[in-house]
Amino acid sequence: MAMGRPRAFDADAALDQAMEVFWRHGYEGATIAQLTDAMGINPPSLYAAFGSKEGLLKAALDRYSAKRACWLEQIVSAPTAREVAERILMGTADTQTDPANPPGCLLVQGGLACGTGSENVPFELAAHRAQTENQLRDRFIRARAEGDLKETADPAALARYLSAVIAGMGVMASSGADREALRQVAAVSLKAFEEQSNS
Amino acid sequence: MAMGRPRAFDADAALDQAMEVFWRHGYEGATIAQLTDAMGINPPSLYAAFGSKEGLLKAALDRYSAKRACWLEQIVSAPTAREVAERILMGTADTQTDPANPPGCLLVQGGLACGTGSENVPFELAAHRAQTENQLRDRFIRARAEGDLKETADPAALARYLSAVIAGMGVMASSGADREALRQVAAVSLKAFEEQSNS
DNA sequence: TCACATTTGTAGCGCTCACTACAATTCTGG
DNA sequence: CCAGAATTGTAGTGAGCGCTACAAATGTGA
Fold first, then answer.
1. Closest nt to B116 (CA→C1')?
2. In terms of residue numbers, what domain contains B81?
């Protein structure tokens, strides 16, 4: 048996470039030509490795989520629910205005509404956003069990709330809001949290 | 002088239909064929009346904002800042899940990131979103002057916060969140407000 | 009634899109 | 060193995009 010509590009590095293009232009706004240019490969290589434009997006989303997972681990390991909220809100304000990346969040700007033939792209993004919300909810359930959140607090509602604020910050960042503006939003959001907290 | 053949369609009614298409599919996802079908006219009529696809979007956005303006007037006429916040949050939860419209908000799903040639579409949407934020800010400045908000409260930050939460609710609604979920978010958001309020 | 101004419907323009056929290239197993 | 397997670069493919030329239709003013 022969094993064939080896791939001449690094799939993860190429995915990082594709991620940035989707992030900046959205799924429908990103063209194959832009993607292949950024990835430094030709269309046949792209299709051999990822199957389709949508397949490439899914791979990029998985990579995005994988990177994000470590970051989230750090955040939910904070000692109290209030501190989890503070870290994720302030952290979001910083990462969404990090000049190393396009402004905002790939999971928001990637595409909330798409044309015929790409109807499942928005669902795909939503599924990834839900990961964060679920992780927060689980953390807050634990926080309530530990007496760290009031008995009357609703962990799922709090997680959903943070998820909404984070998405909203992404919308603001995508239209040019600066870091200070996002931190202000984070600071106000946090006040809603302190009311539910025992710490 | 002759006045020419009169237009055979109602521009506002046609704009309502176009608005819905942009709302559901986003700017780039909406095709001229879908738009003309929904509007009940042919392409030349569309281009004679609105100039271009982007011109049509702007007209649809203006109409969207005009309708929204009355609604907002009602809201900022509430007696206290806290009640303004409650009305706009709960009202948003309802309108963004109104089955008469596509879910979410046109100013969010219309297009946060677009491809080459449509770079100003996201800015256009952002400008319309800013109208709401400015109106809220002005209302909160007044509220603080009236002693209705604490002296330490920052009207601009509060308006920005509400604007972010509303955008975040739009993101959630676009991916299928139901009315109850949005109301939960609204309820939690409101707690951040009560802390700044004297009523 | 007739010249003129404007809209309408038909048909199709050039262009770019996502995607691929194909042959040359580059590797491994024997 | 060669046969086979996989990737690479070139050069397109058909389809759908935003948009428009053109002639027929429909109104107004003189």
1. C16
2. 67-194
- The protein residue nearest C26 (Cα–C1') is A5
CA distance linking residue A9 with residue A7, whole number of Å: 6
Domain-located, residue A7:
no
- Phi, psi torsion values for A110, nearest 5 degrees: -50, -35
Q: Is residue B73 in some structural domain?
A: yes
Of A160, A169, A176, the CB nearest to B164: A169
Q: How far apart are CA B116 and CA B112, in angstroms?
A: 13
A-B C-beta contacts closer than 8 Å = 178
pLDDT surpassing 90 at residue B199: no
Judge whether B131 lies within some domain. yes
The number of distinct structural domains making up chain B is: 1
ipTM: 0.96
Question: Which chain A residue is nearest to residue B26, measuring alpha carbons?
Answer: A113
Domain of A122, CATH number, reads 1.10.357.10
Interface touch A188/B104, C-beta < 8 Å: no
DSSP 3-state assignment of A155?
helix
Question: What pLDDT band is residue B1 in, cutting at 50, 70 and 90?
Answer: low
